[in-house]
Structures are given as structure tokens and as C-alpha cells.
Amino acid sequence: MSNRNIEKVERSLLDLYQAGIPFLEEYPWEFEHDRWAEMLICLLIGIGVEANSARSIVSTLTELEVMSVAGLAQANQEQQTFIRRVLVQSRVDDRTADKAVALFKSVAAAINKRWNGHLQRLLREYGQTMTNDLATLLAENGVERRIAQKVATLWLQNVANIPIVLPDDSHIQGFCRHSRISQGQLLETADRLGLNVTVLDDLLALQAQSNGNLRNRSHNSVTPKRKRTTSTA
Q: What pairs with residue 31 in β-bridges?
């Protein structure tokens, strides 16, 4: 995929997000950085920081834009000292603060190396295995295989927010065909944008439904789900 086509697809997805997100439900992990922030919170809790304090600390550091995966993985001594200072000012003791900073950097570096900084790739990797296992169980118990795969994908998206899509879905195929990209390239683009693939799936389905309505000259608009109170991105 050429750089020009990459930029075109990214812009198309961002425009789609801005246009479509008011019609979708709120998602617990709408963006990849939300999942990463939760990992940092859990690391702090794991080494003894009180939960509410951990959330407040990560929120503050995120607002200061010093907590990205790539940024932490490559954090120099000055940046690490700054993060440590915020921890200590939040009443984290010196020893725990030192441990937290070391863990932030080492875990970020490991995730950067294994999944190129994208935690949702971990969920997608094992989510696909769960999808296949569940679809097989459903198929063995009377559900048509194609439908079983769809049911398994939807269920895992809905109950566990697993960032997976079904390649056979017409809205996925249609967007990839129109954009001249593969499904893999579509997922890579979502990762680069930090967009939850489950959100992307719903947005593309909404777009396909809307396009279908226009083609059919229908006067009925796409029925919105629960309105979001806020919009990010």
C-alpha cells in the first residue's frame, strides 16, 4: 500500500469516525490508549498503590502526554525523573515510585517489541482462537458454520470487547475493495490510529447500511443507538 493510499484510508476512517460515532453506543475501550492506560493503572495497583490514587496518577501523566507506549519505551533519564516526581507528589513512597518507573519503561518496551506497541493485537490474537473454538462448538450443535462464525464474533465483541472482525462480512469486504486494501491492512490502519477494531466494525456496518438506504432511495435515516454524551478524536 503506497503512502498516498495509506493517508487516504486513514483520513477516510477518521472522517467515518467523526460522522458515525454519534449514532453508536459508548465503548469502554474506544481507543487503544485507554487500554494502555488501564495496564499502567493495574501495574501501580499490583505494586501496592491504592486504586483511586493509581487512576488519578495515570490520568495526570496521560494529560501531560508522557505515557504513550513508544514514549515510555524510549524514556530518557530526565523523562523518568519527571514521572517519578509526579508519583512522589501523589504520595507514592520513593521505593514504590522507583519500581513503578522501571516497570512502566520495561513493560512498554516489551509491548513495543512484541506487538509494535498495540495491545489490542494481543486481544485479537487470542480472541480469534476463542472465536474459532466457539464457532466450532456452535456448528457441532446445529448452527450453520457461516452463521456460527458470525455469532461467535458478535458475542465476543459484545461481552468482552474483543477487537476482532469477521472477514466475510460484506461491509468489511466492501470497504477493503473500495479502498484497494486487504483486511490485514485495514486492521493495521486501525492500530496506527489507535482505534478499537470493534468500533471500526460498527462504523463500517453503519456506513454500509446508510449507503444501502441511499441506493434504495429510502427516506428512513439510520436508526441511532444510545446517544453518546461526549466524543473523543
A: 195
At residue 31, the 3 state secondary structure works out as strand
Would you state the cell numbers that stand for residue 44, as one nine-digit string?
501501580
Q: Does the pTM exceed 0.85? A: no
All three cell numbers of 114: 512484541
Q: Percent of the chain scored above 70 by pLDDT?
A: 90
Q: Round to whole Å and give the CA distance between 213 and 230.
A: 27
Q: How far apart are CA 72 and CA 186, in angstroms?
A: 27
> What's the half-sphere exposure (Cβ side, CA atoms, 13 Å) at 166?
22
Q: Give pLDDT, residue 213.
A: 56
**Angle made by CA atoms 155, 161, 164, in degrees to the nearest 5:** 75
pLDDT of residue 227: 35
How many whole angstroms from its chain centre is CA 187? 10
